[in-house]
Design a protein that fits this description.
This protein is an alpha/beta fold. It has helices spanning about 10-25, 35-45, 55-60, 65-70, 85-90, 105-120, and strands at about 5, 30-35, 50-55, 75-80, 95-100. It has 6 helices and 5 strands. The mean pLDDT is about 90.
């Protein structure tokens, strides 16, 4: 059973992603984070296979710390952002990037891809 962490500062977006994730991955355990501190706390609770969906605007100042904690938990990382992060992402250890706004079908496909990458 997959374990998924959704880190998003906007309550409405976080709730929509949680609902879509629950529908798309009904067997998964879903953890929600509203802050970087919650991301770091929840990273230790993830079980394999696992993935984290991180909103760039929320984690950018502590991205290294987040990535290190999530990698220690063997989590795949999907970064979401309304900003063009292409110049930054090349230097980060993330498995995927999803530009906002996005369709929920693209989101679910990206999460699936990240989970599959971590299973290899």
């Amino acid at each position: 059973m997959a374990s998924l962490l959704i880190a998003e500062r906007d309550d409405g977006i976080r709730a929509a992603l949680a609902d879509a994730t629950s529908d798309g991955f009904p067997e998964a355990t879903i953890h929600l984070a509203r802050s970087v501190d919650e991301v770091l706390e929840l990273a230790a609770k993830l079980s394999r296979p696992c993935a984290a969906v991180l909103h760039w605007g929320m984690v950018q100042e502590r991205i290294g710390e987040c990535v290190n904690q999530l990698r220690a938990a063997s989590a795949g990382i999907l970064l979401t952002s309304a900003w063009n992060t292409s110049a930054i992402v090349d230097h980060l250890d993330v498995d995927g990037v999803l530009q906002k706004p996005f369709e929920l079908s693209a989101y679910l496909a990206s999460v699936q891809s990240v989970l599959e990458q971590r299973r290899l």
